[in-house]
Each structure stands twice: as C-alpha cells, then as structure tokens.
Amino acid sequence: LTLQANAQRTLTGTLTDQKSGEALIGASVSVKNTVKGTVTDIDGKFSLLLADDEKMIVISYTGYATKEVDVSSISNLELAL
After folding, report:
1. CA angle at residue 52 from 80 to 55, to 5 degrees?
2. DSSP 8-state class, residue 35
3. Pairing between β-strand 56-60 and β-strand 28-31 as defined by DSSP bridges
4. CB 13 within 8 A of CB 76
5. Residue 49's CB: how many other CB atoms inside 10 A?
6. What is the pLDDT of residues 8-50, one digit of tens each?
7. pTM higher than 0.85 for the full model?
8. SS3 55
C-alpha cells in the first residue's frame, strides 16, 4: 500500500478596498468548487493551503462583486476590490 501525497503550497495575500485602500476584514477566500477556504483578518490578510491542482480561488465580500482569480503561478496575492 502506497500513499501518494499531493504536493501542496501556501497562498498568502492581502485584500483591500480599491477606492479607500482600507483592508477588507472578513472577506471570504475559497478554492473554486471545494469547501476549502478562509477569511481575511483585521489587516485584510489571508493564508490558504492549496493542492498543486487547485488553480482558481473565489473571493467574495458583501457589497462587492465576487471575483475568481487564477493563482496557478502566484504565491502572494495583492488584490483591491
């Protein structure tokens, strides 16, 4: 019996408001088509463990349009909504 471990990587990032530049606290950051996710902290920062085949994340926050982001070649995401 061999257990095959999926290669994993950590995606970190910061979400801010495009107009004010203020941190978005409690924004939802999840892996597309999964239940895996997290929320941003008081500084708008998040960290999410991704399997190698998880390339798309979905970011949602009340009052903002939901965004899908391709993170296949990104390890640190700076995004203004």
Report:
1. 35
2. S
3. antiparallel
4. yes
5. 12
6. 999 999 999 999 999 999 999 999 999 999 999 999 999 999 9
7. yes
8. coil
